[in-house]
Design brief:
Layout: H1 2-13, E1 47-57, H2 63-80, E2 83-84, E3 89-99, E4 111-118, H3 121-130, H4 140-150, E5 160-167, H5 178-187, E6 191-197, H6 200-205, H7 208-213, E7 219-222, H8 236-247, H9 257-274, H10 276-286, H11 298-301, H12 310-314, H13 331-366, H14 374-388, E8 392-393
Parallel strand pairs: 1-3, 1-5, 5-6, 6-7
Antiparallel strand pairs: 2-8, 3-4
Length: about 400
């Protein structure tokens, strides 16, 4: 706790004109802190990471796969939010790669890191919705090897570290043999799961199953052309009403505060563009512990600070770093405003979680068996491999 307060105060103080060692006239309004700058560099001892690297084929035939990823992101996040590992805090990080697209750099093997490991769920959503398909060569071994090399994987073995690669061409294409790439994954305690977009046996013939079992991963085949179906429930409209109230609890700060709030609203719209059910799933995700915005929201930024210590942290915030209606507030008045918004958010989270539990039970009682899709393949593999690392899922808590 003291380390967090010291780091946050140091960051804010370094851009305050009252600081003796300030070397520039920059203020927090022109400063964009990142989530890493608001926490210690090492994962806290009581934290277990779920690191998921999604490697998605964006060649011409993969529009359905990308649409499923867009439509199912929030359902996947919600399933993962039920994870428990003793008394440890669970942290979700998602990285995103695209491969097999002619618009990408040929010298890089038609591969692009869209996003490194991130816990910014709005940014992950934004990047998914920005993906576009195009023809290309799909080099599975190359993209696996690239993700192993580029990403900041946890070194400890008690974290859950997973790669999911989805596509529909032979797993053997490219200059890097998938057998070498998967051997490297095993050495780093990273499990590779393969999702073939097509017939199950065809994927086996194309070596997708072999690519998974070499690391102890799961192989699955999906019909990527099927649109995601979301079941309407009697609780959906009420959850969406609470989501609107939730959006009003954010207190922006910094040069990117307004931009991030607009991104948040845009991802609400993107979710709604698929279906009401997808918008509801996103609202539920926003009430989970995985949805944090320390870099631009003061409520999240001081979430780990004791109530009586909030004023000590925020007194160093330059007024111009705040929205206009808050710039004239004293530190004590700003503290009171943040505390009010914090309590409002906690109450809204509780209401959404109560409705979520009812919604989950309704869906369980009324849903029909669905064909395999991206969401089911991901969740199934994560739960199987999570149990090996002492992760458990209590879905209706």
């Amino acid at each position: 706790m003291k380390t967090f307060i010291f780091l946050l105060t140091t960051i804010l103080c370094s851009i305050n004109t009252s600081c003796k060692e300030q070397k520039t006239t920059d203020t927090l309004a022109a400063y964009t802190p990142t989530p890493r700058q608001l926490t210690t560099k090492r994962t806290a001892p009581d934290t277990k990471n779920i690191q998921v690297a999604l490697l998605l084929d964006t060649s011409n035939s993969m529009d359905g796969l990308i649409n499923q990823a867009k439509a199912q992101l929030w359902k996947i996040v919600n399933e993962l939010s039920y994870a428990k590992c003793g008394t440890s805090k669970i942290k979700l990080q998602i990285a995103l790669y695209e491969y097999g697209n002619d618009a990408l750099n040929a010298r890089e093997g038609f591969i692009r890191q869209v996003l490194p490991f991130s816990d910014d769920l709005d940014e992950i959503s934004q990047q998914l919705f920005a993906l576009r398909t195009n023809g290309g060569n799909e080099f599975c071994g190359k993209v696996i090897a690239t993700s192993l090399r580029q990403l900041n994987w946890k070194k400890e073995t008690d974290h859950l570290k997973l790669i999911f690669i989805a596509g529909n061409e032979s797993f053997t294409q490219g200059s890097i043999n998938y057998k070498d790439a998967t051997t490297d994954a095993v050495e780093k305690d990273i499990t590779v799961n393969t999702i073939f977009c097509g017939a199950y046996n065809q994927g086996i013939t194309a070596h997708w199953k072999d690519g998974a079992i070499r690391t102890g991963g799961e192989y699955s085949a999906i019909d990527h052309t099927i649109a995601t179906r979301h079941m309407d429930t009697p609780y959906d409209d009420e959850i969406l009403k609470w989501n609107k109230k939730l959006n009003n609890t954010y207190v922006q700060y910094g040069s990117k505060g307004m931009q991030k709030m607009k991104m948040q609203a845009a991802q609400d719209v993107n979710a709604q563009s698929h279906s009401k059910g997808n918008a509801v799933s996103r609202a539920i995700s926003k009430s989970s512990n995985f949805y944090t915005n320390k870099s631009w929201d003061l409520v999240d930024a001081v979430a780990e600070v004791d109530e009586e210590e909030i004023e000590d942290v925020i007194k160093n915030i330059k007024p111009t770093a705040l929205s206009e209606e808050l710039q004239d507030k004293s530190p004590s008045a700003l503290k009171q405003h943040i505390t009010i918004k914090k309590n409002e958010r906690l109450a809204i989270h509780k209401e959404i979680k109560n409705l979520q539990a009812l919604r989950n039970k309704y869906i369980a009682q009324n849903s029909k068996k669905e064909e395999g899709n991206l969401e089911k393949s991901l969740i199934n593999a994560i739960k199987i491999q999570g149990k090996k690392k002492s992760f458990q899922w209590n879905e209706y808590e």
